[in-house]
Amino acid sequence: MADSRKSHDMYAVTVTLSISETASDGTVTVTTKQLPTFYLDPSTNGILNQEHAESIARQITANAPDTETRKTTAAVVVVPVGTPPDVVLVPGSPAEFAAARSKIVNGVFYHKETPDAVVEILEKARKEKARIHIHLGYTKAAPPNPNSPGAYVDWLEESDVAGYVSSSGGQQKVPLLIRNPTASGGCVILDHCIIRIRDKAGNDLYRHPEYSHGKVTLRDIDETFDTVRYRASVLVNDKVHANFGSRAKAKDWLRFMGLTYTEE
What we know:
6-stranded antiparallel β-sheet; 4-stranded antiparallel β-sheet; about 35% strand; globular
């Protein structure tokens, strides 16, 4: 007998972080940040019902460890994809994002604001099983908040951005990024946040006219943290973004990320 508890819904999840920071003079500053909506697919996440989906979402978005001066709390909201538009269509809510996935191409549900050029490239990569690297950022469909980088500025995400395009199961299929062409599951692509796409060789397939990754600088250093010695540093807009054990490793990372940089 089939398990009647098994969910057949795709769930849309939004998370709002509240970050409280205490300065040396005792002043407390609270900022909020809304993370991009992501989706949970019952076929790959083993979801039984909405309560179970909420539990999984909270595990995924577990808070970073608090410190004496910085505390973070997360407000998680989960709704089934396909929630009727007249049900809590609060701007930025999961229901709004779910209702917005109305651009259907080859049976895959894309966000209505995703450029046709992006959809065309994703569908071509899906059909040809071509490896791509996507770059994400705030866009018209996912506008930045006052404390975030501007629109079309690369988030410089390193994880879940390179792979092959597939689609989820269920009645409302959404695009997935999977590790290899035969993988059975992967991460839902935030197609409405794509601002650049590169092919396996690093060539641009799509690049928004306003795309930017900021000023990137490669600099030699000689520092040790937790017994690990670092010899190169990558700065973005004059702030340290990542440190590496050698200049060669830093250049490999810059090549992977597709960043233009200057050397010091």
